[in-house]
Specification:
By secondary structure, the chain is α+β, with helices and mostly antiparallel strands. Helices cover 48% and strands 12% of the residues. Helix 4 packs parallel to helix 7 and helix 18 packs antiparallel against helix 21. It is globular.
């Protein structure tokens, strides 16, 4: 049996345990906080996908968010991600809980495999396997409900384990493993973690090429090969996804001020030893910058000491320097706008100007730090005793942290100045009045003090144990025993469950059901939950709105259409929103929920309009749309001359919807004069119209109407039209994926070395 063989048995046991845990959690509860992404987005999306797949339909378009957006092409739908099959067979909440816990096991199993490939003792590899999933860079994402994040993270160590196998043993199975893991990362849905993992793999390959002569000729080609292979294996998702990205607002460069958001704050390096210094979740309010689930780097106080042992151990120093060097380099990336490097990356390195939240680099940084910690554990397990100098440093650090903690615990108001500094950055999401609240300052000071005092106690205990280990070697096991306890306590402090009933405010679904019709709403508290509500929302909370639509909404809300983001505050509802079929706004109020109704009646989903104007420029279209004289029921604004050209008529005919699916609409029309069929759903150049049996017209063009809607020119006569969404590259992607997986399987079945 290989040295890493026990990892499979351990993973199987852990998987059985998490299945049991998932089923022990009450069926109505989901893992995570009450006001987080699982409740407000991913439950609805997984339910929408499951309902369609069980009906035998692959949903390519999501009509419930942003008045419509690509679904398969949105990546986070994770429609083709194999582990999501559990959502077809299990109750929704149980499937979500199992998915989160199962991917922690996959992450830990991959870390065990990577550590084993690095030559660590099985116990040290096991310690790495338990540490990484419970670390500050991973576990708080469960509280945040970041289902795609956790699923995507899970495959990162598998990529590096496969590369390690190829680098050191030149085994093809290493490349096959790494390419399959990279493919699963893409399918899991969080593109940013895929990108950052690729950056980390590339940086490792560059350093290997420089510092490891035996790896020089194969490190960079191997990384390139696995990502080309992963792109081919995932082409059925990747090709439509890239099409969706090109049509979304992130196809263009983000503004610098937007891209710099959620850079890792320098002061949060304190979370290495004091994870609760800034508060924790859910018991204490987090008052630091950004969100705690992306601003914590906790790996245990004992973990840092173990990394120090590896760095000082003569046999492990070189490998530890590499791992810690990678950690520091990736942390430098995570600091983002707090260093001059971010400006260079933003301006000159492709991809860095397409995302915000570079603090996510703490995740691959933590992986390398965990490897260094594993090396320190390996040294202790193999009876390599730490130096007296390290023991004394640990004692001194413990004394310093303990004194600081005791001071804050005794005089909590000492933290007030630090709190003021954080408030002035404008990067904390805590209400401003909290920073001036004496009770809050007192509680925050106590929490910070206790956190430092605990860190100091652990450091002092480890230092004392190392001194004792010189005469009683078994004392060296103290940090190895403390580390799991630290991580379990950290995970316990950040674990929560929420009632899935919070998906919709009480009575909201009843209100919608009692007001039937084909219309859209605005529900600021549940922008992505239109599927559960039963009516589509005009906005969402996801980086996937179509560019045209985001520009239109920004303009009508008084913003700059050239600087669009997903963060829009609706302050008005102009009459032109009738063409969005907008009817209600559900606004949270002190009494619960206030309902505002649009004065003008929403337009029909399909109607015939003969009057049109051609305006090629976007800004001129926006000006015309928002003028008081414009009536979207009577006039359509086009960007090119339609054919056949509509003829003036007050009654051009009749039209009705025969059938409707998320990504397809069948329409029947009887037209007396050439006219325009206006469909009050969003335009994309991947919407196509097809002539059905009995139609007088054989070819149909789908044109952008009123900049964001669809129009189809119709000739006189009878029409039966199928209007369907087919994302660019879907058919080609399916073909490439099939061929790529056949080749992958063929190579996997070849005899080994």
């Amino acid at each position: 049996m290989r040295r890493g063989g026990p990892g499979l048995l351990i993973a199987a046991a852990l998987l059985a345990a998490v299945v049991a845990i998932a089923f022990l959690i009450p069926a109505n509860l989901v893992i995570g906080g009450a006001d987080t992404d699982l409740i407000h987005q991913f439950l609805a999306w997984r339910a929408f996908a499951a309902q369609n797949l069980l009906a035998g339909h692959l949903p390519l378009w999501n009509p419930y968010t942003y008045s419509g957006q690509p679904f398969l092409g949105g990546f986070q739908s994770a429609l083709l991600y194999p582990p999501n099959i559990i959502f077809l067979f299990l109750p929704l909440c149980r499937a979500a809980n199992l998915s989160l816990l199962m991917h922690l096991v996959i992450l830990g199993w991959g870390m065990h495999r990577l550590a084993s490939r690095r030559g660590l003792h099985p116990l040290a590899a096991g310690l790495c396997a338990g540490l990484f999933p419970l670390s500050g860079a991973v576990f708080p994402h469960l509280y945040a409900g970041h289902l795609p994040n956790v699923c995507t993270m899970a495959w990162t160590p598998w990529i590096f384990a496969g590369l390690e196998e190829f680098y050191r043993n030149r085994r093809l199975e290493g490349l096959l493993l790494a390419s399959a893991a990279a493919c699963l990362q893409i399918l899991a849905g969080h593109v940013q973690y895929v990108f950052y993992t690729a950056i980390a793999a590339g940086l490792q390959a560059v350093i290997y090429s420089i510092g490891e002569p035996s790896f020089r000729r194969r490190a960079l080609p191997a990384v390139a090969a696995i990502y080309v292979a992963a792109a081919a294996l995932s082409a059925a998702q990747l090709f439509p996804g890239l099409t969706g990205l090109r049509q979304g607002f992130r196809h263009a460069k983000l503004g610098f001020s937007y891209a710099r958001m959620f850079s890792f704050p320098v002061e949060n390096l304190l979370t290495f030893v004091a994870p609760g210094f800034f508060g924790d979740l859910p018991r204490h309010v987090y008052w630091g910058r950004g969100y705690l689930w992306e601003m914590s780097v906790f790996v245990g106080v004992s973990g840092l000491i173990l990394a120090g042992i590896a760095l000082l151990d003569p046999e492990r120093r070189r490998a530890a320097r590499f791992d810690l060097g990678m950690t520091l380099l990736l942390l430098l990336f995570a600091l983002g706008s707090h260093t001059p490097l971010f400006g260079f990356l933003y301006n000159y390195v492709p991809g860095f100007d397409r995302f915000r939240g570079v603090s996510k680099f703490t995740f691959p940084a933590t992986m390398f730090l965990v490897l260094a910690i594993g090396r320190g554990a390996d040294a202790l397990i193999n009876r390599h005793l730490p130096s007296r100098a390290l023991a004394l440093c640990s004692l001194q650090a413990g004394l310093t942290a303990g004194v600081a903690g005791l001071a804050l615990k005794t005089y909590p108001e000492l933290l007030a100045g630090f709190l003021t500094m954080i408030q002035r950055t404008g990067e904390s999401y805590l209400p401003a009045q909290a920073f001036a609240d004496r009770n809050f300052i007192h509680a925050a000071g106590l929490q910070a003090g206790w956190s430092l005092l605990l860190a100091g106690t652990i450091l002092a205990l480890i230092g004392a144990s190392f001194l004792q280990a010189r005469t009683r070697p078994w004392w060296r096991w103290i940090p190895l025993l403390l580390l799991p306890l630290e991580m379990i306590a950290f995970a316990h402090a950040h674990f929560a469950t929420a009632d899935s009933a919070l998906v919709l405010p009480k009575g909201l679904k009843t209100y919608v059901a009692s007001h039937p019709g084909d219309y859209r709403v605005l529900d600021p508290k549940g922008l992505n939950n239109g599927f559960f509500l039963g009516v589509p929302d005009i906005w969402g909370n996801d980086p996937g709105p179509l560019t045209r639509y985001a520009e239109f909404i920004s303009y009508t809300q008084g913003g700059n259409p050239d600087q669009i983001t997903q963060d829009v505050t609706f302050r008005k509802f102009p009459t032109v929103y009738t063409m969005l079929r907008f009817r209600y706004a559900f606004i949270p109020s002190g009494d619960g929920l206030a309902v505002g109704e649009q004065v003008a009646k929403p337009m029909a989903r399909v109607q015939l309009i003969s009057d049109y104007r051609v305006i090629p420029e976007r800004d001129a279209i926006f000006s015309a749309l928002t003028s008081r004289s414009f009536d979207p029921r009577r006039t359509v604004l086009l960007e090119s001359v339609p054919y056949p050209r509509p003829e003036p008529s007050n009654n051009p005919g009749t039209v009705r919807v025969l059938s409707a699916y998320p990504d397809a609409l069948t329409v029947e029309a009887d037209v007396t004069r050439s006219t325009l069929l206006l469909i009050t759903d969003l335009y994309s150049n991947n919407w196509h119209a097809r002539s059905l049996s009995g139609s007088v017209q054989k070819l149909y063009d789908v044109l952008p109407a009123n900049y964001i809607l669809r129009a189809i020119p119709l000739a006189p006569g009878h029409h039966r039209i199928l209007v369907e969404y087919v994302p660019g590259g879907l058919r080609e992607g399916i073909g490439v994926s099939i061929l790529a997986w056949l080749l992958w399987l063929l190579l996997a079945l070849l005899p080994g070395d």
